[in-house]
Amino acid sequence: MRPAVALGAMASIALLCVGIVASGRNLVDSEATSITVDEIDPAMLELPEPDDTAAEGEPDTAVQPPEPESEPAPETTARYQRVEPRAPLSDLGQAKQPDIKRPADWDGTSLHRPISNAAGTFEAMGYSVTIAGTEPVDADETCNFKGDSWPCGARARTAFRSFLRGRAVICAMPEGAEPGAITAECRIGTDNMGEWLVENGWARAAAGGPYAELGEKAQSAAKGVYGPPPVRIETAPLPDGAQLPVLEADPAEVPLQ
Q1: Which of 3, 12, 156, 214 lies most in the core, judged by the most C-beta atoms within 10 Å?
Q2: Which domains occur in the chain, in start order?
Q3: SS3 of 205, please?
Q4: Which three-class secondary structure state does DSSP give residue 188?
Q5: What mean pLDDT do residues 216-222 have?
Q6: Per-residue pLDDT tens over the stretch 111-138
Q7: Residue 105 pLDDT > 60
């Protein structure tokens, strides 16, 4: 039984191979008959001869080499010259430079790292300077505003220190001034220090001085030492039964026994 099955399988494989070969031949024959090639005309392969009889009026677009008689540009050793720009055609051409107007006492002596102990006075570089035209306010002075007394001297000193901020002060020093107590007109930048103090009420104007009018305006406007005390921020009361936490002492501060 097994030999018969094997022979049948081999016969089937042989028939399948014969069918594949026959179908392949038919496919090759069909593709070969569908391709057609046109014959090439030999005249198409010949290049046209150049036409030597070109029209005389037509311009020649080819790049021409330089003429042998042409000379290069002459060499020059002159350097470039800087020329001032021309003036603008109108006011809208460019921004105008601001006119710097300096006061007559623009020049002076610079005093660095000033320290103030009272409004209207400061110390720097060995000088104890009092601002001319002002009456300084002592740091421990108290003022009364509508029956309310408050430490206006300490407040004025704080305001003056904030104005200084460690900046250099330029003063018109008296002739032959030596380190020590002097009275001079001073400024920081373009700000007149005496004018700033009196105008904001942190120093009183000297009688008959240049800032008397500013002092009257500051007093009428209740500025600085003429005004009310600064507003105090009061803490809200603690709720019933609440207690603040007890801070423990720093070990470094505990004395050794």
Answers
A1: 156
A2: 109-226 (2.40.50.90)
A3: strand
A4: strand
A5: 94
A6: 999 999 999 999 999 999 999 999 999 9
A7: no
